Amino acid sequence: MPAPRETAVYTHGHHESVLRSHTWRTAANSAAYLLGVLRPDMRILDIGCGPGTITADLASLVPDGHVTGLDRAPGVLEQARATAAGRGLANTSFTVGNVHALDFPDDTFCVVHAHQVLQHVGDPVRALREMGRVTRPGGYIAVRDADYAAMTWYPPSRGMDDWLELYRRVARANGGEPDAGRRLKSWALAAGLTDVTAGSGTWTFSTDEERAWWSGLWADRTVASAYAGRAVEQGHATGGQLRAAAQAWREWGARDDGWFSVLHGEILCRKEA
Ligand SMILES: C[S@@+](CC[C@H](N)C(=O)[O-])C[C@H]1O[C@@H](n2cnc3c(N)ncnc32)[C@H](O)[C@@H]1O
């Protein structure tokens, strides 16, 4: 089968303001729906592992097994390797790859995991088919993605509404699907996966510290990440509109009564034994 051309551009890139968010992630806050099926000797593939904090947590949960972190971007894998080395983990390895055409034989892994990846890829159904192919019979395919249209916050803000509308437009123009969470089950069924458990999970940001962190990183990435460059280059927004969106984030973050919830779709699929 010829290697597919990746049609999507990864919306966020790996600017410091983006990695500030990704490195906060843990298996507990981002993969809790998966943890109950893990066994100490499992072999796991973590696709789109980014800077690798979830990857490293998974590795510590399979001390007699192994975790392979895979990402399309070689640069961020250096950070993932450093994360694993810094925690003294000997059961990890990292490789460049593309979820649409995984360079592994059929039936290789006990668990194939992807967190916040399928929303960014050109063909999520093909990606899930590939994930299923490299999963062992009886093993699991585990996927979690945010659903941007379902993000909700208080107090209401026209500037934040504009930010969300713009983000979704840019992500779609990049070839992705920002409202991925609600679609995961349907993509899994279209990929031929049969034993699919579909659920949901949330992140909530409300305390002073949480609001300062969440609003600060979104304000910064709105004006300084790869997203900002694409938004302007493609004519979706002017620099002034991006600065206004960043300001709306900061104003939300300064509100004592501010509250923000991110809804995620989650699927745990068992490959037929
Ligand atoms: C939003 S980040 C998620 C990182 C990590 N899973 C986490 O949750 O912290 C998405 C990652 O997927 C990678 N990615 C995007 N398209 C990919 C593809 N087609 N194949 C493999 N990785 C891809 C990006 O380079 C990026 O590091």
Task: Write structural notes for this entry.
With 273 residues, the protein is of the alpha/beta class. It has helices spanning 16-22, 27-30, 32-35, 53-61, 74-86, 124-133, 158-173, 184-190, 208-224, 226-233, 239-253, and strands at 43-47, 66-71, 92-96, 109-115, 135-146, 152-154, 195-205, 259-270. Strand 4, helix 6 (124-133) and strand 5 form a beta-alpha-beta unit. The mean pLDDT is 95. Residues 6, 10, 12, 22, 25, 30, 47-50, 54, 71-73, 76, 98-100, 115-117, 120-121 line the site of S-adenosylmethionine.
Task: Give a brief description.
With 273 residues, the protein is of the alpha/beta class. It is 40% helix and 22% strand. It has helices at residues 16-22, 27-30, 32-35, 53-61, 74-86, 124-133, 158-173, 184-190, 208-224, 226-233, 239-253, and strands spanning 43-47, 66-71, 92-96, 109-115, 135-146, 152-154, 195-205, 259-270.
Q: Please tally the β strands and state the result.
A: 8
Please tally the helical runs, counting DSSP H or I stretches of 4 or more residues: 11
Q: List the uncertain runs.
A: none
What number is the mean pLDDT? Answer: 95
Give the structural class. alpha/beta
Estimate percent helicity. 40-55%
Gyration radius, in Å? 18 Å
Shape: globular
* Span of the ends, CA to CA: 25 Å
Are any ligands bound, and if so which? S-adenosylmethionine
Q: SSE order in H/E notation?
A: HHHEHEHEEHEEHHEHHHE
